[in-house]
Design brief:
Length: 245
């Protein structure tokens, strides 16, 4: 959708907007329960769902995650997957604006995405493993009676590592990764035609532009778009001169 908001002799403001709402649903899958996709898909649900364990919290006495044991047999397997979460995009799009005044022009574009993504804790190694950890682990359980949603740390082969693996395949491993990003900004000035005639040029434009300048999000990781420990989109700031002979 595009619009001309203001149009006068010297000033013009136009906008463009796009929105995508992706939807899909698994209609049929013969013998799904007996296939290798039994723990991945559900008839009637989107293909982007995640079947997983349900974390009931952190035991204040032991400091370990409490995983829901659906069949109450003391063994955690795919039969205990009790959460179904859509980890795909609910909608995404963008809003762009162009404002021009005489020979000046300003363009800016916002990208927005409504989605779920992987919890920042999933991007790092098991508790006790050699490697960096996000600052959120400073709120972990440390002594009996602590009330928190992050379990204690231990060795990579202990109980904490076992429940951490269950956590990686749980409902708690999915979080809101929605964001709004100022994707592009460009400011330019076109030299007056009277001046161009004097220097025998068809056109000349001076510009300054930037990409990925600001991101608004509640996501706690490095970047809601790339997630995990992948490098976020780089910020670019470019200045230039465009001349048409």
């Amino acid at each position: 959708m595009s619009s001309i908001n203001i149009k006068s002799k010297n000033f013009k403001w136009t906008s463009n907007f796009n929105l995508t709402i992706p939807r899909n649903k698994l209609i049929s899958f013969p013998d799904l329960a007996g296939s290798s996709y039994a723990n991945q898909y559900v008839v009637g649900q989107p293909l982007s769902i995640q079947k997983s364990y349900t974390v009931l919290g952190v035991n204040p006495k032991t400091g370990l995650y409490v995983i829901q044991d659906v069949d109450k047999n003391g063994i955690y397997d795919t039969n205990d997957y009790s959460s179904i979460i859509n980890v795909g995009q609910q909608f995404y799009g963008g809003l762009g604006n162009t404002l021009s005044y005489k020979n000046f022009q300003l363009d800016f574009f916002f990208q927005f995405v409504k989605q779920n993504g992987k919890n920042v804790l999933n991007a790092f190694g098991l508790p006790g493993a050699l490697g960096n950890q996000p600052v959120e682990v400073l709120q972990r359980w440390q002594k009996p009676g602590d009330i928190t949603d992050i379990q204690r740390f231990g060795t990579t082969s202990g109980q904490a590592a076992t429940t951490a693996r269950y956590y990686d395949f749980s409902n708690e491993n999915v979080t809101d990764a929605s964001f709004i990003r100022l994707k592009n900004v460009a400011f330019s000035y076109r030299l007056p035609s009277q001046f161009l005639k004097k220097v025998d040029l068809k056109g000349c434009r001076i510009y300054l532009q930037g990409q990925n300048l600001l991101t608004f999000t509640k996501y706690l990781g490095l970047d809601p778009e790339t997630q995990g420990t992948a490098l976020p989109p780089l910020r670019y700031i470019t200045a230039g001169l465009e001349v048409n002979l």
